[in-house]
Amino acid sequence: MSRLIFCCWMLMLPIAYAGEENWVGRFDGADTAVPAPWRLLQLDKRVPPTQYRIRLWDGVPAIEATADGSMTLLARSVEVDLYRTPILCWSWRVDAPLVNADMAKKSGDDYAARVYVAFKLPASTIDFITRAKLGLARTIYGDAVPDAALNYVWDNRYPIETYRPNAYTDRTRMIVVESGAAKAGSWVSERRDLLSDFKLGFATERGEVTLLAVASDTDNTAEKARAGFADLHFVSRDQPCASR
Predict the structure, then answer these.
(1) The pTM is what?
(2) By C-alpha distance, which of 118, 211, 123 is closest to 169?
(3) CATH fit for domain 21-235, picks 3.40.50.2000, 2.40.10.240, 2.60.120.260, 3.40.50.720
(4) What local confidence, expressed as pLDDT, does residue 5 receive?
């Protein structure tokens, strides 16, 4: 009997350790139309929208974002178990970082490229004042306003691993993943522990990912920017990001 149990355990090992991939952004460069379930999400209708299309970019099927004094998220709903697959992987590129952006100021809250992740929190983890602020924001901008959010950005000014509240709201954390022009013009692969980053920013692991988005954001500085995004997926901590 013990030998049988051992054999069954050995058969289960590949399942337990092989990991899994949860793809949320893999594209076909032959079709320029952005596929469902991706959609434009424009919180402020007064701001011109960033333009998005799918293209084959240096051999990589990707989202191309083109901003000109504009801001719109290209977003999709996601379901992910952060205890099983907390690692967010993606590739991105920018033509150049912005010039006048400064994440410490509302007037400078712009980024050549950003990856945005929205979370829903249990009501018990949100105090009364925060709930009131979120309610007011939702009356202005709609239900797309999340309980909390992380933004991974390609910045122009602050060093990599800078982690700070957004200039507009403390319900969003800004994390500098790339900075400056050293890697501009080429694809760069990233790997972030979403659960750890969320816990660092909001002192809880109880957030549920509801939405993932990408953007090139230049509405405050009125600059022009172009960025690419590809190969967005989640993996376990002991699993490498998938290769193209």
Answers:
(1) 0.89
(2) 118
(3) 2.60.120.260
(4) 38
